[in-house]
Design a protein that fits this description.
alpha+beta, 6-stranded antiparallel β-sheet, 43% helix, globular
């Protein structure tokens, strides 16, 4: 079970060694779990970690050597690895070099356990090694050994040797039809699915690893570690937290009434109104207040996530929600095991959720925050949340939720993109619109707080200004913004890559089993976005064009 207190060695290994690894200075990790217990009186195993600096055969590979595992490997790894491992890793490396996002494969071991191998580009995620431990612990699995290997072509591979914990095996062997539970049954396993087989657990870990790759750590991580929220629920809550920070209607009806009373032609009245607007928007709902409210309403988060999942994952063609989830689960395990609670009851409708929010919350602020998540659900037209592979989360929004008093001209299209290093928007005021993508940096924590509060308003204003500039040409105006997180100020291109790739997930309709699935599309028609250079992205547009071409976009030019 993941610990919520203590030294957190794996998080330390992530921060000090793995997150910073690059070909010029990389670290490999070996970790082993003892077969026996520490002592007769202490029912715990001993885990050891060995961290070593890499010594590559060829530190600067070029040409064909980039794909040659004998050239790009660490010497110690190369001396120990079997031909099968070299062949397996070589295949993963080849896919990582030609694909965005993580490459995840698994194979069954002779002892009945499974090996899970995950490859990705160095510095493309943070805290992923420790987050994966939280994930397999959620499904009551443990790793007997695990390795992190670095390669001089910029690839990282994590290899986990997994098996079910003893209490989980007892539940599995008792039979899926049994209603009995063991006295030491894991509440975390029960939160996922009772009597889950090792194959089912591994299948779910493979699916959910890409979600953790996008956002390995959130303020809701402790709730995930303790089993109170699933991976999807925790990530959904984080998305809702970010959405609420930007889009809570903080001005209220009273401000609208005052705006009607005051004279828009009187300079004093306009100044008073502007100051009031600024104060309301900065002080009514802080990031900390919104987070505190969400953490106190965990059951509502589960209900709201189920409402979101029912629309954007489960087919709404026919039958009840219960039968659809059950049938999909039995068919191919595409529905998360954490969603099997929907088998017990229908997800609440929007009206039912509004009533429950009113009944459960104890004040107006709490109710407004939780209703903001419901607004989010109702206005998401398309998302890559459930794609098997992704590098960031993207949401095509219906801009109808924007209050007219704050945003008098309704945009034609709105995208929200959330990655491990950034958050971003794209706004356009016409179907065919042009505009640049701007990267927003922050000198310090205070500057980030200011940039975060004003990000969407700035994006909206820039797009609106561009739209007015384009009034004499067929194309309308648009603008995109990417706000780098405080600890990612040195990763503008990584953020831009993820922003573009996540956007393409929503613009392309192709389907590649196991890589990209067809999305639930509530928009109903295809879209094309035209990106241009702006502050911080002047040299990035050629890459964006070639990447769109590589992914098969007909509009790549």
């Amino acid at each position: 079970v993941s610990k919520t207190e203590g030294p957190h060695f794996e998080q330390m290994i992530d921060a000090e060694y793995l997150d910073i690894s690059v070909p010029q200075k990389a670290y490999r990790v070996e970790s082993y779990r003892s077969r026996g217990k520490v002592s007769k009186s202490l029912d715990a195993s001993l885990r050891t970690y060995f961290v070593n600096a890499c010594d590559f055969v060829n530190p600067t590979p070029e040409g064909d050597a980039v794909n040659d595992i004998a050239q790009v490997s660490d010497r110690t790894f190369l001396a120990k690895a079997t031909p099968h491992v070299l062949d397996l890793y070589g295949g993963v490396i080849a896919k990582v070099l030609c694909r965005s996002g993580p490459v995840i494969v698994s194979d069954e071991l002779p002892n009945g356990g499974y090996r899970l191998v995950i490859g990705y580009r160095q510095r493309s995620t943070q805290g992923f090694y420790s987050a994966m431990s939280d994930l397999y612990h959620y499904y009551s699995m443990y790793s007997s050994r695990k390795y992190v290997e670095q390669f001089s072509n910029g690839v990282t591979i994590i290899s986990l040797y997994l098996d079910l914990a003893k209490h989980a095996k007892k539940l599995t062997h008792s039979g899926a039809g049994s209603s009995s539970t063991s006295s030491n049954a894991s509440p975390v396993l029960s939160a996922a699915i009772p009597h889950a087989s090792i194959e089912e657990c591994v299948a779910q870990i493979k699916k959910e690893a890409s979600l953790l790759f996008c956002i390995p750590n959130t303020p809701f991580q402790t709730l995930f570690k303790t089993g109170e929220l699933s991976v999807q629920e925790a990530v959904y809550a984080n998305v809702g937290w970010i959405f609420a920070q930007h889009f809570l209607n903080r001005l209220g009806s009273e401000y609208a009434t005052l705006a009607e009373i005051l004279d828009p032609n009187d300079a004093t009245d306009v100044e008073v109104l502007a100051k009031l607007k600024k104060r309301l928007r900065q002080e009514t709902f802080t990031r900390e207040l919104v987070l505190d409210i969400l953490l106190r309403h965990r059951e509502l988060i589960k209900d709201l996530y189920a409402h979101f999942a029912h629309v954007h994952y489960v087919s709404a063609d026919s039958g009840s929600a219960v039968s659809k989830v059950a049938d999909r689960l039995k068919a191919d395990l595409h529905v998360s095991l954490s969603m099997t609670r929907l088998q017990d009851q229908e997800p609440l409708s929007s009206d039912e959720l509004r009533l429950k929010i009113t009944r459960v919350t104890t004040n107006d602020h709490d109710a407004m925050v939780m209703r903001a998540l419901l607004d989010f659900n109702e206005h998401v037209l398309k998302t890559n949340f459930y794609q098997p592979t992704k590098v960031a989360l993207s949401f095509r929004m219906d801009p109808g939720f924007l209050p007219a008093i704050e945003y008098p001209t309704k945009p034609y299209g709105l995208f929200l993109i959330i990655g491990n290093e950034f958050r971003g928007f794209h706004v356009r005021f016409q179907d065919v619109a042009r505009g640049g993508i701007r990267i927003v940096r922050s000198r310090n924590a205070e500057a980030f707080s200011i940039n975060q509060r004003t990000l969407f308003d700035e994006n909206y204003s820039l797009a609106s200004t561009q739209h007015r500039k384009n009034k004499d040409i067929p194309e309308g105006g648009s603008k995109g913004t990417i706000l780098l997180n405080p600890d990612a100020q040195d990763k503008p291109f990584v953020a831009f890559e993820k922003y573009v790739d996540a956007m393409l997930d929503l613009l392309l309709t192709g389907e590649t089993p196991g890589i990209k699935n067809r999305l639930v599309d509530r928009l109903g028609h295809n879209e094309i976005l035209f990106f241009g250079p702006d502050e911080g992205t002047a040299g990035y547009m050629d890459w964006a064009s070639q990447h769109a071409r590589k992914r098969g976009a007909p509009f790549w030019k």
